[in-house]
Amino acid sequence: MDIFDKETRSRLMGRIRGKDTKPEMLVRRLAHRLGFRFRLHRRDLPGSPDLVFPGRRKVVFVHGCYWHRHPGCRLAYQPKSNKDFWAAKFAANVARDEKAVVDLREQGWDTLVIWECEAKDSDLVASRLSAHLGRSEDR
């Protein structure tokens, strides 16, 4: 049973941002510090990737573990109330993410997903970004 009534829960869930989240901001700052320059949330690309590196034809998604169902992550827990709704919601999110990656690859873009729980480890993110993007030409 939820501790909030439906209206309060709806209001709280509606305040969750999709852009400029804390994990995304951490990844953006780190990519910039590494010398990579990028565009944000290109709506003309499938899935509106969080970071777009047009010259390299590479994109980075910063996914929240809960919303995008990071496999095996403790943050991707299952809500105890309204289970059918959440199961359908999460399945749709995962299917949408997979479709975006496939569509991007078909258009010649290389993709990387950085999970919310990984964003806390700046060394890990730096190594993953560097491996995905190659050496920065700006440094």
Give the SSE order as H and E letters: HHEEEHHEH
Sheet bearing the most strands, described? Answer: 4 strands, mixed
Helix content: 40-55%
Number of strands: 4
The low-confidence runs, each spanning 5 or more residues with pLDDT under 50, are none
Mean pLDDT: 90
* Relevant CATH superfamily: VSR Endonuclease
Please compute the radius of gyration using only Cα atoms: 16 Å
CATH architecture annotation: 3-Layer(aba) Sandwich
CATH third-tier fold name: Endonuclease, Chain A
Gross morphology: globular
**Broad CATH class:** Alpha Beta
Helices, by number, come to 5
Function: May nick specific sequences that contain T:G mispairs resulting from m5C-deamination.
Family: Belongs to the vsr family.
Keywords: DNA damage, DNA repair, Endonuclease, Hydrolase, Nuclease
Enzyme class: hydrolase
Q: What report would you give on this structure?
A:
InterPro entries: DNA_mismatch_endonuc_vsr, Restrct_endonuc-II-like. Pfam families: Vsr (PF03852). With 139 residues, the protein is of the alpha+beta class. It has 5 helices and 4 strands; from the N terminus they run ααβββααβα. The model has no long low-confidence stretch (mean pLDDT 90). A 4-stranded mixed sheet has the order 1-2-3-4, sandwiched between helices. The protein is globular and about 50 Å long. It has helices spanning 6-14, 22-33, 65-68, 83-106, 122-133; strands at 39-40, 51-53, 58-63, 110-115. The protein has a single domain (18-130), classed as Endonuclease, Chain A (3-Layer(aba) Sandwich), CATH 3.40.960.10. The protein is 44% helix and 12% strand. Helix 2 packs across helix 5.
